Write a sequence for this structure.
C-alpha cells in the first residue's frame, strides 16, 4: 500500500535522454530592454523598485509530456528585499492572468 502511495509523489521517469530545446546567451536580445545591460558575459539589471524583468521566451518548443528545467547563475549587490529567478510556462489554450 505504501509503495503505491509513494509512487503518486515520485517525479515522472524521463522517456528518453535530455535534449536542449533552446538556450540563450548574452548575444540574444532580451525582451525587457529598460534597465537591462550587457555586463561581464551576462546582464546587469538595475531595479530601484519591485519589478519583473522578462529576459527570453522559447516559443513553440514542439514538446509533449516533458519535464522542463532551466539553469542560471545570479549575482547580487546591495540588494534590499528579495531577488529571485522564475521560469514561467504558458500552454496553448490556457490564459495567463495579467
Amino acid at each position: 500500500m505504501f509503495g503505491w502511495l509513494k509512487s503518486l509523489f515520485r517525479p515522472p521517469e524521463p522517456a528518453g535522454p535530455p535534449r536542449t530545446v533552446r538556450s540563450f546567451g548574452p548575444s540574444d536580445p532580451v525582451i525587457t530592454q529598460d534597465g537591462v545591460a550587457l555586463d561581464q558575459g551576462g546582464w546587469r539589471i538595475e531595479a530601484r523598485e519591485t519589478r519583473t524583468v522578462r529576459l527570453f521566451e522559447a516559443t513553440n518548443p514542439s514538446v509533449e509530456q516533458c519535464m522542463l528545467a532551466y539553469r542560471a547563475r545570479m549575482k547580487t549587490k546591495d540588494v534590499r528585499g528579495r531577488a529571485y529567478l522564475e521560469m514561467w510556462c504558458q500552454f496553448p489554450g490556457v490564459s495567463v492572468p495579467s
